[in-house]
Amino acid sequence: MSEVAADPVALAQRLAGMRQARAAGQGLTVDHPWLDVDAAYAVQEAGVRLLAAAGERPIGFKLGLTSRAKQVQMGVAEPLYGELTDAMLLDVGEPLIAADHIQPRVEPEIAFLIGAELAGERVGAAQVLAASAAVAPAIDVLDSRYAGYSFTLPDVIADNASAARLALGGVRRGVDGVDLRLVGCVLERNGRLVATAAGAATLGHPAAAVAWLVRALSRRGRGLAAGSVVLSGGLTEALPVAPGDVVVARLGRLGTVELPIR
User: What's the CA gap between 105 and 243, in Å, rounded?
Assistant: First the structure.
């Protein structure tokens, strides 16, 4: 057993302290080069327990590294995940307060609202679609505890996949009759086009990304509960934001979500 596997709470507390101080530091692997993926998820889970002890309620998960290009860039063969809590959820129209974060960035995503429990090592995209109550446009707000977003794969996993906030569009749609691979995404900042993409940017199909999450959770003895929110992965590169910005993600038939930055 590695040192961190024996005591993941210490590193989780270190990351929590950086978040509370709004001060970025170096990756955990600089001091702990033996930190591997399994140990990093143990640190992440310890960090979520700290949030729960402070009164936050887990509501779902977010995926990262769901594009093949990002996986090649990081030298990995699969995505990663982090957990979401109710304190991260912004209300419709609620602004993101930049000063509450270290170095916020945003990504447009397709959010799944899970209607039935999903668990097991053989779950595929078809089961995810069948279990989904609805999908919605979303903006995932990232905030790394590492200076300049410089980290290894275990670092970002331990840091809860850089989870900070999320904004969901006010419109919910059923998955029937919508090919999520072909849903177009237009990302704008202050009225100017920043990036475009399609749903296929996440592992070829957003539901395939959620299926990967279910299988990954199964390996840790967990599952995806009914009522969970799942952000299926960034459709574009993460966009830095600052006070005064207004970010709009338009996801075709799924609708639009707007996030003002204060």
Answer: 12
Nearest to 139 by CA among 260, 244, 261, 257: 257
Q: Are 136 and 171 in contact (CB under 8 A)?
A: yes
Distance CA(51)–CA(30), nearest Å, equals 25
Cβ-Cβ contacts under 8 Å for 246 (sequence gap 6 or more)? 189, 190, 191, 258, 259, 260, 261
d(CA 227, CA 164): 20
Contacts of 221 (CB under 8 A, 6+ apart): none
- For residues 218-241, give the mean pLDDT: 95
Question: Which runs of consecutive H residues, i.e. helices, occur in 54-199?
Answer: 68-74, 125-131, 153-158
Q: What is the C-alpha to C-alpha distance for residues 158 and 174, in angstroms, rounded to an integer?
A: 33
Distance CA 246, CA 96 (A): 10
Check if the beta carbon of residue 139 is closer than 8 Å to that of residue 108: yes
**Sequence-separated (6 or more) residues with CB below 8 Å from residue 233:** 63, 64, 65, 66, 67, 79, 109, 201, 202, 203, 206, 209
Q: Residues near 93 by Cβ (< 8 Å), separated by ≥ 6?
A: 258, 260
Distance between CA 35 and CA 48 in Å, rounded?
A: 18
Q: Could you report the per-residue pLDDT of 80-127, keeping only the tens digit for each?
A: 999 999 999 999 999 999 999 999 999 999 999 999 999 999 999 999
pTM over 0.85: yes
Report pLDDT for 4: 47
- Exposure string (b/e) for 122-138, b if CB count within 10 Å is 16 or more? ebebebbbebbeebbbb
CA-based end-to-end distance of the chain: 45
Q: Using an 8 Å Cβ cutoff, are 213 and 230 in contact? A: yes
